[in-house]
């Protein structure tokens, strides 16, 4: 009987240790997106790409107009006129795709730059918040299967710490 009690107690030890662990969770993307630096960079990117985005919308409308014209007036047009409209539409679609690739590439480059700069700061901010709040463990909230009521969401604290850092 004594042996069974010791085995049961030994099996409970890890559970007791976990119960004493103070756990925080963080939503990294939210914390980063809400920092002043990231907001500033995204605003600058939007300003930089604004003209290209406007051009993209204009090209999209032109393609729609060409398609509408072809649908409405196609029966009364000559084969050459129809082919000319199709060719213009294809050229504009190629231009749209090129511009979309350019915008996407620039956005991804900015994202990489921000992450390279913010990655080490993010890790440091988490460590500082964990020390201040006496947390034993901080988990990425998206990686957790279940987050109970006892877990502490430190996302806002991490964001605030990042904003304090230079």
Description:
With 166 residues, the chain is mostly helical. Helix content is 76%, strand content 6%. It is built from five helices and three strands; from the N terminus they run αβαααββα. The protein has a three-stranded parallel β-sheet with strand order 2-1-3.
List keywords for this structure.
single chain, 166 residues, mainly alpha, three-stranded parallel sheet, 5 helices, OmpH family outer membrane protein, unfolded protein binding, coiled coil, Skp_dom_sf
In terms of per-residue confidence, which ranges show pLDDT below 50 for 5 or more consecutive residues?
A: none
| CATH superfamily membership | Skp domain
Number of strands: 3
Q: Approximately how much beta-strand content do the residues carry?
A: 5-15%
What is the CATH domain class?
A: Alpha Beta
Tally of helical segments: 5
The Rg value, from CA coordinates, equals: 28 Å
Major sheet attributes: 3 strands, parallel
Chain-averaged pLDDT: 85
Class by SSE composition? mainly alpha
Order of helices and strands: HEHHHEEH
Q: What order do the strands of the largest sheet run in, or round the barrel if closed?
A: 2-1-3
| Overall number of domains | 1
* Overall CATH architecture: 2-Layer Sandwich
CATH topology: Protein Binding, DinI Protein, Chain A
The general outline is elongated
| Helical percentage | over 70%
Distance between the termini: 62 Å
Short description:
The chain has 166 residues and is mainly alpha-helical. It has five helices and three strands, in the order H-E-H-H-H-E-E-H.
Q: How do the strands and helices of this protein lay out in sequence?
A:
Elements: H1 2-19, E1 23-26, H2 28-33, H3 36-73, H4 79-132, E2 137-140, E3 152-153, H5 155-164
Parallel strand pairs: 1-2, 1-3
